[in-house]
Each structure stands twice: as structure tokens, then as C-alpha cells.
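seq as requested:
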Amino acid sequence: MAETDKTKPRRLKNKNKPPEPKTVAEAKKREEEPGYWQMTDDEMLLRSPEPEDELKTSDSWRVFRIMGEFVDGFDNLATITRGVSIFGSARTREDDEMYIAARETARLLAEVGFEIITGGGPGIMEAANRGAFEAGKVSVGCNIQLPFEQAANPYQNKSLTFKYFFVRKTMFIKYSNAYIIFPGGFGTMDELFEALTLIQTRKIRNFPVVLFGSQYWRGLLQWITSAMLNEHNISPEDLNLIHLTDSPEDALDFIVKVCGVDTKRLGEKLP
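C-alpha cells:
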């Protein structure tokens, strides 16, 4: 699909962003500046009450907002039955090999009938949404409100915005048949290890967890094997929960095999 002005990715604007602090002293000074902390809904919910804290009286009422966000998510994603969530860094550039691979992986999955779900932002998320969008298939973005500027990528035909991270993460787990984890930072690691924890503890069934990019993940896997396994903090079979690949085709084949789906029939059922 040819790229038009309407479908070109919208880049985050950081014109007024102050320079990054170079020392610990500068970082501490920055924290003292007015407006540094912009309280989010997550922070208001999770902060510990203090004496004479008026916010603590509203905690019980905040449950209704959380409940409404769950209801809205469940209603809007109820038709997603073959979702695959793709995670990765929001900082990955369009010309990066991982961006190109994520776009191709999403396209292949979408063309056989899987629905692509991402966090709705830039980088790897944009690449995955773009692959599904350009294939003319279902491209879902589960966006999150942040205290700094975050623009949703334009390659979504179903877009939701959440205030609470834990509600959003529930949607990823509930509506996914598999996770594909591209190189990323803390948020990417959070999604990876939450899925592995839920599978290991049998809170959810064992669905495919694919790590894409062997060079990036090699150090982590070596540490898991040499430290976690060596100290008996995990079992040898836990290592089988992860599939490592550098190929979009292999990621597709692995997910199809583990999910036990007929791609011909799957393609007929879904748009």
C-alpha cells in the first residue's frame, strides 16, 4: 500500500524538551523544578496515603473508573479471537532492521488471519500495526496515557486509550494467542516477564512467547541459564517457554504450529 500524507507516521515532537541531565546533581535539581511531576491516574491509585491526604478519600470511588475502563476494553475487543501482540521499543527508527522485520512479521501473521495488537505508539509498535494495516487486516492499538507527549501511530483501524497500565496489560493477555517480543526497554521486559510468570504459574495456558533478534536477547538468555537456572530459581523446562528467532517466517510457523490452527480455514473466517 502506497504511503500517503494521511498514513505517514506522526513523529513525537520534542522541541521544548529540556536537555538531559548529565550528572546526578543535575537530575535531582530537575526533580525539584515546578511541574516536573505530572500525577497520572496510576500514580494517584498506587501512591501510599499520607496524613491529611485528601486523595485517599477518593480511592474507593476510583474503582468505578477502573471498572469502566475494563468494561470499555472488553466491549471493544470482544471480536478479537486470533490476536497476536507484538512488543518492542518505541524508539526504533523506520530504517532499522528490527522495524522492517516487525512490519514483515505482522504482515505475514495478518495475511493468514491473525489480528495484530500493539501498544499503539511509535517504533516497533508502529511497524507491527503498519504491517497489518497495509495488508488490509485488523490492526489494534492499545494506547496508554502518559505524562509526556505520546502520539498514536496512524496504522490502526481499532484504537483504544487506557489510563491504567494494569488494565491495558490485562487486555494484551486476554486477547492474545501469542506474544512476539522485539528488542525493547523496561516496558518490553515488563510484558515479557509478566507473560512468562503467568504461564509458569499456570495462571494462563502455555501460549507462544517469541523473542525476535538473537543478538539482542543472547545476553539475557545466557544470564537466565547461568544464573537463574544454576541457582535453581527456575526449572529446566521453563526455558522451553521461550522461542528465539531472527526470521519472520519462522515466527509465523512457530505460532501456527503451537496454536494448532489451520491457516487456510483461519484466513477464510477472518477479514
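DSSP finds ten helices and seven strands in the chain.
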